[in-house]
Design brief:
By secondary structure, the protein is mainly alpha-helical. The chain has a domain of about 45 residues. Helices cover about 60% and strands about 0% of the residues. It starts with a helix and ends in a 27-residue tail after the last helix.
Length: about 80
């Protein structure tokens, strides 16, 4: 049993077919992480560009992305108001 195990281990020790996989796996991992990060940043940039085009087409000022057109408050006493208003 011991001789058979040593023979298998000797063959595996001389076999270098998986060496490139071990060397390039961390490199592929770094490239994949960089690509995911770059795509996330690119997506945010494209979203901002499309939003600015949409705002320009609708007539809103370019810096008014946080402003929402809400109805104005009225001083009429007949308006139903939520509790604590």
């Amino acid at each position: 049993m011991k001789a058979k195990t040593l023979a298998v281990l000797g063959r595996l020790h001389g076999d270098e077919s998986g060496q490139y996989l071990i060397e390039y796996a961390p490199l592929a991992l770094w490239i994949a992480c960089g690509a995911v990060t770059a795509m996330g940043s690119l997506g945010l940039s494209l979203n901002a560009a499309y939003m600015s085009v949409d705002r320009a087409k609708s007539g809103q000022p370019l810096g008014a992305s946080h402003m929402v057109n809400l109805p104005r408050k009225t001083s009429c006493s007949k308006v139903a108001r939520p509790p604590g208003y």
